[in-house]
C-alpha cells in the first residue's frame, strides 16, 4: 500500500468506506463502489500493471484489528485462490493493511443471479444456472472447501450467462472470528440456510447442496420458500416446515424437476444428493425426462452417423433470409453452409459467430484460439476451433464438443482460456482425462501439440489464431 493515501482508520460506516474511491490499495486504483452487503463492500478497481479492471472486496474494519481473524483470513484466502475452475471467481490477490482487509478478484460485468430473479425463470434457464453453480461447488468440495453461503447474490454472471461462484470461505472465516462472537452477528443467509447450519451444527458439502436447492426453488418460482419477520423464524421454518411444492406445481415445473428440488432440500443431510456431481446428473436426466434441453444456442444434440457427431436437424437449426446461393464458412469446423442457415449443418455452431466477443487476448492483432482435432471414432480427422470462453466436452447433449465414445462420460472435461494460457480440467469423469499420457487431477496448462485422452478417445490440441 502506497504512503500518503490517508486511508480511513475505521471502515465501519459507508462514509468511511466510500472515502476509498479515488485512492489506491496497493497497485489497485479504486474506481467506484459496485456492491455492499452485511459481510463486505465491493469496489471496482483498475490495475495499471496489467491494464485490467478487478473487483476488490473490503471486509469490515473491526476484523482487521483481530489477529486471529487476520491469520485465518490469510490461510483461507490462499486455499480458495488455488481453486482454478471456470465457474469459480478467480482470486488475484489479498491483503490487510491500515485496518483494511481486502480480497482482489476478477471483475464480472453482468451482475448477479439475484438481479435476474425479479420473476420466475424458464425451467431450462434456471437449471442451466444451477448446473453451472454445481460445477463450481463440485470443484470446491473435492478440494475440501465448503461454501457455507450459497445464494443468488454470491453467483456472479457474465453478460453471456456464464455463472461464477464467489465468496468461498468468507462465512467460515466470520463464523470462527472471535470479534464476531463478541458482537453476536449471524452467519450465512437464513433464506437459503440448511437446517443443520441453522441449528449451529457441523456442516459439510451436503449443506451447500441444500442451499443450492433453495436457490433452484427461487429461480423456478421467483420467491424463496420460507419468509418471516425475523431470521430466527425463517430458520425454524427450514428445520420444521415442508417445502411448499404447490408453488412449483403452479408455475408448471415438470414433475421430474420437482423431484430433484425435493431431494436437494431434504431436511436430513443423508436424504439429499451426497455430492454436487450427483445433482448435475439428476438435473440433466430431469431435463431429458421433461423433453427439455439446456438453453444455450451452441449446445446441440449428437447423432453418431454424422461427421463430427452432431445433429443436423435439431431445434436450433433455424432458417434465415438471404440469398440461398451464397455460402458462409463455419468458424468452428470449416464446413460451407448456405447463407440462409443460422447454424452450421455439420457442427451446429452459430454462423453469426457471436462468441468472438470473448476473444480479448491477442497476438499480433489476432485472437488466440484452441483447435481440437479428433483422432479416433467416427469423427476421426475432424477439427474444431473454440473461442476464449468455456468449452465443455462430454458424451451427451449439453456439451460444446460431443464425443460419442462409450469411455467418455456425460460430463468429462472443460477447456478454458485465462491469463494468456489454455487450461484443461477433468470434471469427475469415470475413465479420466490424460494429457500426454499423464492423468489430470487438477487444471493443467496446455501446450501446442499436446495429446489429450478423454477416456479412450484421442484428441490433439493446437493453438490457432483467428482472422
TrEMBL record:
<dbReference type="GO" id="GO:0005524">
    <property type="term" value="F:ATP binding"/>
</dbReference>
<feature type="domain" description="Protein kinase">
    <location>
        <begin position="28"/>
        <end position="284"/>
    </location>
</feature>
<feature type="domain" description="FHA">
    <location>
        <begin position="391"/>
        <end position="440"/>
    </location>
</feature>
<dbReference type="Pfam" id="PF00498">
    <property type="entry name" value="FHA"/>
</dbReference>
<keyword id="KW-0808">Transferase</keyword>
<dbReference type="InterPro" id="IPR008984">
    <property type="entry name" value="SMAD_FHA_dom_sf"/>
</dbReference>
<dbReference type="GO" id="GO:0004674">
    <property type="term" value="F:protein serine/threonine kinase activity"/>
</dbReference>
<feature type="binding site">
    <location>
        <position position="57"/>
    </location>
    <ligand>
        <name>ATP</name>
    </ligand>
</feature>
<keyword id="KW-0418">Kinase</keyword>
<dbReference type="Pfam" id="PF00069">
    <property type="entry name" value="Pkinase"/>
</dbReference>
<dbReference type="InterPro" id="IPR000719">
    <property type="entry name" value="Prot_kinase_dom"/>
</dbReference>
<protein>
    <recommendedName>
        <fullName>non-specific serine/threonine protein kinase</fullName>
        <ecNumber>2.7.11.1</ecNumber>
    </recommendedName>
</protein>
<dbReference type="InterPro" id="IPR008271">
    <property type="entry name" value="Ser/Thr_kinase_AS"/>
</dbReference>
<dbReference type="InterPro" id="IPR011009">
    <property type="entry name" value="Kinase-like_dom_sf"/>
</dbReference>
<keyword id="KW-0547">Nucleotide-binding</keyword>
<dbReference type="InterPro" id="IPR000253">
    <property type="entry name" value="FHA_dom"/>
</dbReference>
<keyword id="KW-0723">Serine/threonine-protein kinase</keyword>
<dbReference type="InterPro" id="IPR017441">
    <property type="entry name" value="Protein_kinase_ATP_BS"/>
</dbReference>
<keyword id="KW-0067">ATP-binding</keyword>
Amino acid at each position: 500500500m502506497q504512503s500518503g493515501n490517508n486511508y480511513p482508520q475505521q471502515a465501519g460506516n459507508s462514509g468511511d468506506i466510500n472515502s476509498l474511491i479515488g485512492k489506491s490499495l496497493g497497485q489497485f486504483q479504486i474506481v467506484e463502489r459496485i456492491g455492499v452487503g452485511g459481510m463486505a463492500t465491493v469496489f471496482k478497481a483498475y490495475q495499471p500493471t496489467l491494464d485490467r479492471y478487478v473487483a476488490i472486496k473490503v471486509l469490515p474494519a473491526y476484523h482487521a484489528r483481530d489477529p486471529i481473524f487476520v491469520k485465518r483470513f490469510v490461510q483461507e484466502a490462499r486455499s480458495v485462490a488455488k481453486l482454478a475452475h471456470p465457474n469459480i471467481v478467480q482470486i488475484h490477490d489479498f491483503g490487510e493493511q491500515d485496518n483494511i482487509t481486502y480480497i482482489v478478484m476478477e471483475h464480472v460485468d453482468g451482475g448477479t443471479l439475484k438481479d435476474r430473479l425479479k420473476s420466475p425463470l424458464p425451467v431450462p434457464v434456471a437449471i442451466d444456472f444451477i448446473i453451472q453453480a454445481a460445477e463450481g461447488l463440485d470443484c470446491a468440495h473435492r478440494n475440501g472447501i465448503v461454501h457455507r453461503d450459497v445464494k443468488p447474490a454470491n453467483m456472479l454472471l457474465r453478460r453471456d450467462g456464464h455463472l461464477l461462484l464467489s465468496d468461498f470461505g468468507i462465512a467460515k472465516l466470520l463464523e470462527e472470528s472471535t470479534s464476531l462472537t463478541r458482537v453476536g452477528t449471524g452467519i450465512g443467509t437464513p433464506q437459503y440456510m440448511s437446517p443443520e447450519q441453522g441449528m449451529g451444527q457441523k456442516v459439510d458439502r451436503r449443506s451447500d447442496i441444500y442451499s443450492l436447492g433453495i436457490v433452484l426453488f427461487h429461480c423456478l418460482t421467483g420467491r424463496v420458500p420460507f419468509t418471516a419477520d425475523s431470521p430466527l423464524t425463517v430458520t425454524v421454518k427450514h428445520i420444521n416446515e415442508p417445502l411448499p411444492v404447490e408453488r412449483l406445481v403452479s408455475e408448471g415445473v415438470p414433475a421430474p424437476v420437482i423431484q430433484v428440488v425435493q431431494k436437494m432440500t431434504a431436511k436430513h443431510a443423508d436424504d439429499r444428493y451426497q455430492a454436487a456431481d450427483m445433482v448435475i446428473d439428476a438435473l440433466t436426466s430431469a431435463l431429458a425426462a421433461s423433453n427439455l434441453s439446456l438453453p444455450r444456442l451452441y449446445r446441440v444434440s449428437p447423432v453418431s452417423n454424422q461427421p463430427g457427431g452432431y445433429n443436423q436437424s435439431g431445434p436450433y437449426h433455424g432458417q434465415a433470409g438471404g440469398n440461398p446461393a451464397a455460402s458462409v464458412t463455419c468458424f468452428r469446423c470449416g464446413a460451407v453452409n448456405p447463407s440462409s442457415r443460422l447454424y452450421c449443418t455439420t457442427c451446429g455452431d452459430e454462423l453469426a459467430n457471436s462468441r468472438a466477443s470473448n476473444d480479448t487476448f491477442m497476438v499480433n492483432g489476432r485472437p488466440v484460439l484452441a483447435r481440437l482435432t479428433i483422432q479416433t471414432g467416427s469423427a476421426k480427422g475432424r477439427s474444431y476451433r473454440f473461442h476464449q470462453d468455456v468449452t465443455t466436452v462430454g458424451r451427451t447433449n449439453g456439451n460444446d464438443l460431443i464425443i460419442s465414445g462409450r469411455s467418455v462420460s456425460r460430463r468429462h472435461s472443460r477447456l478454458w482460456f485465462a491469463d494468456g494460457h489454455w487450461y484443461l480440467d477433468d470434471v469427475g469423469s469415470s475413465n479420466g482425462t490424460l494429457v500426454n499420457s499423464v492423468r489430470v487431477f487438477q487444471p493443467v496448462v496446455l501446450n501446442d501439440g499436446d495429446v489429450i485422452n478423454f477416456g479412450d478417445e484421442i484428441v490433439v490440441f493446437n493453438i490457432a489464431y483467428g482472422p
